[in-house]
């Protein structure tokens, strides 16, 4: 029987927690094991229940979602973090990139996308809501042509197979999904990903995914 993904949900609005909880609860493979109304509670709950995935609102009383994400990643590194954001909070996305978040999702996303995001990050993938990925790239310095050229130059260091893996990583696929798509063993894909991060000099899968977008490996 497949392992159930254990999720922590943190949002200061009860109605949002109820809605997200209901969506995740509709998937038999996901269970919300803890909830929190602010960032400090989220950190404490993460420490206590050690969930597979933590979904954090950006704006919460006291410790905000971005600070909570960094703290959770520090004390429970095995927990993947998804940042829940709105259009009005989009300026926080860049800051979250360095906080160890594996996913960025709009609160207006549909149920299917929410479930896909949780499954993706639980499987070791990065998940960027399409709008979020476009926003991140659009807010980078205005030398977009030169940035794209530099991204292509960096990606050119990779082998053909590594570029294939990077492109699928940029689409939000997990190691298992990449392995199935490329007819590889999952452990082999994990090795490819580690090599890709090292060769591209990026810290995590989210940054690699953005680079894949910039280099044109993923359709925008």
Task: Please provide a written account of the structure.
By secondary structure, the chain is α/β, with parallel strands linked by helices. It folds into two domains: 5-137, Rossmann fold (3-Layer(aba) Sandwich); 142-214, Arc Repressor Mutant, subunit A. 53% of the residues lie in helices and 14% in strands. It has helices at residues 14-25, 39-49, 65-75, 93-97, 111-122, 130-138, 144-155, 160-170, 175-182, 186-200, 205-214; strands at 5-10, 30-36, 53-57, 80-85, 103-106, 127-128. A six-stranded parallel beta sheet has the order 2-1-3-4-5-6, sandwiched between helices. Strand 3 (53-57), helix 3 (65-75) and strand 4 (80-85) form a beta-alpha-beta unit. Helix 2 runs parallel beside helix 3 (65-75) and helix 8 packs across helix 11. The termini are far apart. The mean pLDDT is 84.
What descriptors fit this protein?
single chain; 220 residues; alpha/beta; Rossmann fold; Arc Repressor Mutant, subunit A; six-stranded parallel sheet; 11 helices; 6 strands; 14% strand; globular
Uncertain segments: none
CATH superfamily of the largest domain: Response regulator
Tally the helices: what do you get? Answer: 11
Shape: globular
Mean of residue pLDDT values: 84
The CATH architecture of the largest domain is 3-Layer(aba) Sandwich
Structural class comes to: alpha/beta
Give the topology string: H per helix, E per strand. Answer: EHEHEHEHEHEHHHHHH
CATH class of the largest domain: Alpha Beta
Proportion of β residues? Answer: 5-15%
Strand order of the largest sheet: 2-1-3-4-5-6
GO molecular function, one term: DNA binding
Keywords: DNA-binding, Phosphoprotein, Transcription, Transcription regulation
GO biological process, one term: phosphorelay signal transduction system
Pfam family, one: GerE
């Amino acid at each position: 029987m497949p392992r159930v993904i254990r999720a922590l949900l943190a949002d200061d609005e009860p109605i949002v927690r109820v809605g997200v909880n209901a969506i995740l609860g509709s998937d038999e493979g996901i269970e919300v094991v803890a909830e929190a109304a602010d960032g400090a509670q989220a950190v404490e709950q993460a420490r206590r229940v050690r969930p597979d995935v933590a979904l954090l609102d950006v704006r919460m009383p006291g410790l905000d979602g971005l600070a909570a994400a960094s703290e959770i990643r520090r004390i429970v590194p095995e927990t993947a973090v998804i940042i829940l954001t709105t259009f009005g909070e989009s300026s926080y996305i860049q800051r979250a990139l360095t906080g160890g978040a594996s996913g960025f999702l709009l609160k207006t996303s549909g149920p299917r996308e929410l479930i896909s995001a949780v499954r993706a990050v639980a499987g070791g993938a990065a998940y960027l809501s399409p709008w979020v990925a476009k926003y991140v790239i659009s807010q980078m310095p205005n030398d977009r042509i030169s940035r794209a050229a530099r991204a292509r130059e960096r990606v050119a260091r990779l082998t053909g197979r590594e570029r294939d893996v990077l492109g699928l990583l940029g689409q939000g696929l997990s190691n298992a999904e990449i392995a199935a798509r490329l007819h590889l063993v999952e452990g082999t894909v994990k090795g490819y990903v580690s090599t890709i991060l090292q060769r591209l000099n990026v810290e995590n899968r989210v940054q690699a995914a953005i680079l894949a977008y910039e280099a044109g490996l993923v359709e925008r």
